[in-house]
Write a structure and sequence with these properties.
By secondary structure, this protein is an all-alpha fold. It has 2 domains: 41 residues; 88 residues, no CATH class. The protein has 7 helices and no strands.
Length: 168
């Protein structure tokens, strides 16, 4: 076999190439143990994520189930008068809100109505808040519950009367 010319040249001039040696500090740094990087497979991350997802989903399903059951139990055990109050309050508040939106559309046509209507409604709202405070102090007071329902009726009647008068 024919020898490579570069290889021959390196062998012949080896002493000329080896005149420089690395410093002892460099050899010390090279000799230090290299910290091995911990290699974690992507599969392990996926397993961990799957476990977390399963735990969270099971937990949320359990909370949802027990949360609904406990609220149903509270509703069954609640005072029928309070349930009636909550139902009527929901009914009247949606009716008043719907009619108030219609009235507010007419404020640009009848600007003088705005102050009067908003003042009347805020007075009724303040009275309702006082009644609600009374109800919290004496939870089973039938007269307070009736007064709250009547207040809601007044608010709805006020809105109905205004809508009837302005025909906007």
């Amino acid at each position: 076999m024919k020898k490579d010319r570069l290889e021959e040249f390196v062998k012949d001039n080896r002493d000329d190439f080896d005149f420089r040696e690395p410093s002892p500090e460099l050899w010390e740094r090279i000799a230090k143990p290299v910290k091995a990087k911990k290699v974690v497979a992507l599969r392990q991350y996926l397993y961990r994520a799957a476990v977390v997802l399963v735990v969270v989903s099971i937990g949320s399903v359990l909370l949802w189930q027990f949360g609904l059951r406990s609220s149903n139990r509270l509703a069954k055990n609640a005072d029928p008068e309070l349930i009636e109050l909550m139902e009527t309050e929901a009914y009247y508040s949606t009716q008043v809100d719907r009619k108030l939106k219609e009235i507010r559309k007419c404020y640009y046509t009848y600007p003088e109505l705005e102050d009067e209507i908003e003042t009347d409604l805020s007075e009724l709202e303040n009275m309702y808040k006082v009644l609600k405070t009374d109800l919290e102090e004496n939870i089973s007071n039938r007269s307070v519950i009736e007064a709250m329902i009547e207040n809601n009726r007044y608010r709805l009647k006020l809105c109905d009367d205004v809508l009837e008068q302005i025909n906007c």
